[in-house]
Every structure is written in structure tokens, then in C-alpha cells.
Amino acid sequence: MNYITRFAPSPTGPLHLGHAFSAITASDQARANGGKFILRIEDIDPIRSKPHWENRIFEDLRWLGLDWPEPVLRQSDRLSSYREALDQLIAMGVCYPCRCSRRDIRTALSAPQEDSRGDGSGGPVYPGTCRFRSMSDAGAQDSIRLNVASALDLVGRTTAAASPARMNKRASGSNRIARAAPSPGLLAFTEVGPIRTGIHRIMKEATRSRIGDIVLARRDIGTSYHLAVVVDDAEQGVTEVVRGEDLFEATFLHVLLQDLLALPRPTYFHHPLVRDESGKRLAKRDDARSLARYREDGLTSQEVRRMAG
Ligand code: GLU
Question: Which atom of ligand 1 lies closest to the CA of 120?
């Protein structure tokens, strides 16, 4: 088996214990499976991404004793590939342009909503204000959203119509594809992490109400985390995605994008998050728990590895 996993940080702040845990878990998984651990720099946001944070990521990970093949892929070098994938999705008729600001979205939501979108972003679920708009009137002021309902209908029809030969062909590709037995209109992924081990199926209604029409291409950068991560995991032959459980629901969306774009399906390993004493998950602004701070304070990488769990 050709096992490949990755750690994919954004160079927008210091790595903390949670990142250390994620990177070590991925690297351990690669070792346990006799495979490869790769590092990818997710720097699609040109304002928030900074070269000095990228250098710190390399330093921190080396200090933890991790090792990865060079050259490291940077998402900022891959914008044309994301554009190609976006064009494919547009051609399928599952996208629409959107000009809503954050404030428009808040105003359009009739009831005050918890910031609770299930894709790890913490934003509200988009109420669909621009869903009636067509791509033919898209302009420079627009971001591009995925019409999740249309996308689910489209892959539902394709899955239902898929012949056994097609499913077998897809399931025997060079990447390990964990695909449950096809059932009409249902997409599935295999979770091998400790929290929710098993096969998870997309529930159409839940995907619509919990995730909604996410942005595929921000107006400023022409792509988004979701699109870039799906395209790159396929491009890099990632067979198992190891990441925090905050992204568990985002996986439903990633599986949907993989099916639309006919990309192979990795298995998923969502690990628990490292939390502070009050139970809050660590954030980049928690500089006190940054790996660099522990290093400066004289802790050894072994001690930090133990603290990360
Ligand atoms: N760049 C993302 C993050 O830092 C990676 C998430 C993923 O592994 O898919 O949270």
C-alpha cells in the first residue's frame, strides 16, 4: 500500500500545542503504515500569510523531530489549478455568484444564529440570498458559491446511475479509495480516527442546513480553503487525511467536491483537539502556548511531545 498523509498549516501565526499534536499524529500514522508524511503550506490568503510564520513552521516542526520531503508545496503557487477545478464546477451548473457582505448575511438571517457552521469556519450558514443569480452575470465584485442542493442532486443522480464497472474502476485506482457500497444519492467516507470510527454517509438535509452554500472562490483570491484542500489532496496522492475533529463536518463537503470533480477519496482520521484548562480549543492567538515560546522557555521537544499528548 502506498500510504501518504499530510500536515497542512496556514502560515498566519505561531504553531501551538494543537498543531504539534496534529503534525505528530500524522507523522506517526505515516510511520505505522509504512508510508509518507508530507508538509503543505496553505497560504492562499495573501494578507494573513507571512514568510516569517512559514519559516517558524519549518523550525518548529524540525525541532519536534519531524521530517518531510522537499520541495514543499505552497498553495499560492497553485492558483491556476484551483481555477481549473472551479471552471469545471461552474460548467456543471452548481455554482452561483454572490455579492453579500458579512453584514448582509447577518441581516438576512431572520433569527440570530449561533456562529455554528459545521465546516470548522465558525461562520453562520449562508441563507442563500444570491442563489437565484446566474453565473452569466458574475462580476469582479462577486465571490462564487457552491449550490449544495444542486450539487447533491447531481452526484445523487450520477451515483444512482453508476454501473458496477465504473465503481470498481474507481475503487481500484492507485490511491487507496475507501468507498462504501454505492447507494443511490448517498456519498460516504471512511473514518479511521479514534472518535467516530466507521463509515459516514452524507445526509442531504444535514449537509444543506449545517454547512450550506459555502464559498468556493473568494472574490479577492479566486479560491477557498475547501476547494484548494480537495484539489491538493488529490494532486499530492494523499490517501489519508489526518486533521482535527473541528473539520469533521467539512469532510462531507470535501467528499461532495471529490465526487463532482471525479477525484479519489482518501480515508479520514479526525483527532481530538488540544484544549486549554477551560475546555476552549487552542487558537493561534494563544501565543503563550506557542511551540516557539516553549522552546525559548527551555523545554525539550520530548517534553512538548508529551504535553501535546
Ligand atoms: N490549513 C488548514 C488549517 O490550518 C488545514 C486543515 C486540513 O488539514 O484540512 O486548519
Answer: 10
